[in-house]
UniProtKB/TrEMBL annotation:
Task of the protein: Component of the ribosome assembly machinery. Nuclear paralog of the ribosomal protein P0, it binds pre-60S subunits at an early stage of assembly in the nucleolus, and is replaced by P0 in cytoplasmic pre-60S subunits and mature 80S ribosomes. Ribosomal protein P0 is the functional equivalent of E.coli protein L10.
Record's bilayer topology term: Multi-pass membrane protein
Signal peptide: none
Record bears the keyword Transmembrane helix: yes
Domain called Large ribosomal subunit protein uL10-like insertion: residue spans: 79-148
Cell compartments where the protein resides: Cytoplasm; Membrane; Nucleus, Nucleolus
Ammonium transporter AmtB-like domain residues: 310-608
Organism: Oryza meridionalis
Keyword set includes Transmembrane helix: yes
Similarity remark: Belongs to the universal ribosomal protein uL10 family. Belongs to the ammonia transporter channel (TC 1.A.11.2) family.
Name of the protein in question: Ribosome assembly factor mrt4
GO BP annotations, alphabetical order: ribosomal large subunit assembly
One Pfam family named in its UniProt record: RL10P_insert
């Protein structure tokens, strides 16, 4: 099926005909399933053929014109995963002159044995892309598209014809209808028998759902900083409300319009078309990220759009977790004083103008390496949170006390578990990149924890649980942009680096007047930039890291630095503009009376209540005011 080609045919015939494909069971009931309930004589014979990829064609055209139209209509297109190859395609050993050196990493991912030889892509051995009569794998489909070989033919066949006078069937159409089910079953059986390496849709879907679940485990816990629940943020329920409300509402906005703004079809050079991702036709089709389609200057496809082997619903849910976590991080910088109404106005504006921040496409097509969101999640949230903390102002001095270390450790464990899905799910398939990303994530986090503990022992004379949790989070953030792009030894070095710079900036910022409640700037923005720059240094030779080539690697490092500056500048400006506009209508900060009264004045309930005492928890505002006075 090719929806666009069918749409073109509908447009061509709209003056005389209509085509209906959806709701086959409803159409069967409407036409009649038996002679007793058929709408017109003989229609029940037609309704039984409404199954699979069939539909109804209503027309005023003469019979001969219709038969000629269907006989001559034929459109060629690139084959998709599971299609049957019409010929054997074999690439011979030697230079692949049709590909530039930038394509070498992508070709390697598609299973081609390639290398760079004096700046040219070279095939080191003969390679069979596909074999005639066998289903096409996901990698082969991508390679055939790059080679410009179209093996798919979109045609429409007449299965049967009904008129008020007679009813007849067409042998060719009936044969295609029956063969379609057999081919579909054979393709699915072939893909499943090949296992994960063959790109089985069932395996991919199960793996992606697991990654989704791990990532979404991070959201309700409200763990957006280096010391989750370590800082006593009064009113406590206000802090929880800001994090949970922001994460959930941001997720809703992501599904309504932001997903397609970030990953959909292009509207402007930096942004996609806002559109909902909720329709059934959209959710059940194969996932596709049009923003990843990269064209050469003369319009030829250089890198095809990413199309994982699972439905769009899984992709939306996966990216939804990114969206919820990011806004939860921003909330961590303004806990304990920002107005709920101001926050409710801030979230949808920040979703549109900052999270989708118009730079994702630019960074991707410019060649910036950000494996799992070190820039677009952690740097963006860290800078935006710090900027928001500046505009909202500091907490009351008496609210900056300690919290619950035991609960902090439990929350940190949930966070660490969720990061496995965070980085492991980003290749969009079960492949070597995913395995390397998960291993590197844990290597870097463990190393950063040990480095921070060693630093505590050297400076303070004893280890600190708080320092260990800080090290865990800075290590996880630092490896995020590099998880599947570096080797294990590089993850070790990045773990050591992720302890030093954030620790230094955190201590150096003590004298600043900006009250970043949970230190988002240091643990997320600083660690994210550090990880992004080190990605340009340590990325494997396929991705042109600095240590594998001074010239190409140096350019890559400069790109990483420039991208970090761009993302930081964009979020400072966008967040400032949003908060200034919101401030014109709603105060950004709660009043001192509300802060003093706490959760009872804001939510009408308390965070901690002694239920065993039988005390009534529903206190009025008047009671609180009397008590405070």
């Amino acid at each position: 099926m090719r929806n666009q080609k069918l749409k073109d045919l509908r447009e061509q015939l709209k003056s005389s005909s209509r085509i209906f494909l959806a709701g086959k069971k409803v159409m069967q009931i409407a036409l009649g399933r038996s002679p007793a309930d058929e709408a017109k004589t003989g229609l029940h014979k037609l309704s039984k053929f409404l199954q699979g990829d069939t539909g109804l064609f209503f027309t005023n055209l003469p019979r001969d014109d219709v038969e000629r139209l269907f006989r001559e209509f034929e459109e060629h297109d690139f084959a998709r995963t599971g299609s049957i190859a019409t010929e054997t395609v074999e690439l011979k050993e030697g230079p692949l002159e049709q590909f530039t050196h930038e394509m070498e990493p992508f070709l390697r991912k598609q299973g081609l044995p390639v290398r760079l030889n004096k700046g040219a892509v070279e095939l080191v051995a003969d390679h069979i892309v596909c074999e005639e009569g066998k289903p096409i794998s996901p990698e082969a489909a991508q390679t055939l598209r790059l080679l410009g070989m179209q093996m798919a033919t979109f045609r429409l066949y007449l299965v049967c014809r009904w008129s008020s006078d007679d009813f007849e069937t067409y042998k060719e159409g009936l044969a295609q209808l029956r063969a379609g089910w057999h081919i579909y079953a054979a393709n699915m059986l072939h893909l499943l028998s090949n296992g994960v390496g063959g790109g089985a849709g069932v395996a991919e879907q199960g793996r992606q759902c697991l990654a989704d679940a791990l990532r979404h485990a991070r959201r309700p816990s409200g763990l957006p900083g280096p010391r989750p629940l370590l800082r006593r943020c009064r009113p406590p329920q206000l802090g929880a409300h800001l994090r949970i409300h922001g994460a959930l509402r941001h997720g809703r906005h992501h599904a309504l319009w932001a997903h397609n703004m970030a990953f959909g079809r292009r509207l402007l050079p930096f942004v996609g078309r806002p559109a909902p991702a909720l329709a059934q036709d959209y959710m059940l089709t194969q996932a596709l990220l049009p923003s990843t389609l990269h064209l050469r200057s003369y319009g030829e496809v250089e890198t095809a759009a990413v199309a994982p082997l699972y439905p769009s619903a899984s992709m939306v849910f996966f990216q939804w977790a990114f969206a919820g976590v990011t806004v939860g991080l921003v909330a961590g910088a303004v806990l304990g004083r920002m107005s709920v109404k101001a926050w409710m106005a801030f979230v949808p504006l920040w979703t549109t103008l900052s999270y989708t921040h118009l730079g994702r496409r630019l960074l991707f097509h410019w060649g910036v390496m950000d494996y799992s969101g070190g820039y677009v999640v952690h740097l963006a949230a860290g800078v935006s949170g710090y900027t928001a903390a500046y505009w909202v102002g500091p907490r009351r001095k008496e609210e900056a006390g300690g919290g619950n270390l035991v609960v902090m450790v439990a929350g940190a464990g949930i966070l660490w578990m969720g990061w496995t899905g965070f980085n492991g799910g980003d290749p969009f398939s079960a492949n070597t990149d995913s395995s390397v990303a998960v291993l590197n994530t844990h290597i870097c986090a463990l190393t950063s924890i040990l480095a921070w503990i060693c630093c505590d022992v050297a400076v303070r004379g004893r280890p600190s649980v708080v320092g260990a949790v800080q090290g865990m989070i800075t290590g996880l953030v630092c490896i995020t942009p590099a998880a599947g792009l570096v080797q294990g030894w590089a993850a070790l070095l990045m773990g050591v680096a992720s302890e030093t710079l954030p620790c230094y900036t955190m201590n150096a910022a003590m004298s600043l007047k900006v009250d970043d409640t949970l230190g988002i700037l240091h643990t997320h923005a600083v660690s994210g930039v550090l990880g992004g720059v080190l990605t340009g240094v340590f990325a494997t030779c396929s991705f042109r890291g600095l240590i594998y080539g001074v010239r190409a690697g140096g350019v890559q490092v400069l790109k990483q630095v420039a991208a970090a500056l761009f993302v930081a500048a964009w979020n400072v400006v966008a967040t400032s503009i949003i908060l200034v506009v919101v401030r014109a209508f709603v105060p950004l900060r709660m009043t001192e009376e509300e802060l003093l009264a706490g959760d009872i004045a804001i939510h009408g309930e308390q965070a901690y209540t002694n239920f065993s005492s039988g005390t009534n928890c529903s206190l009025s505002h008047e009671t609180i005011e009397v008590g405070n006075s």
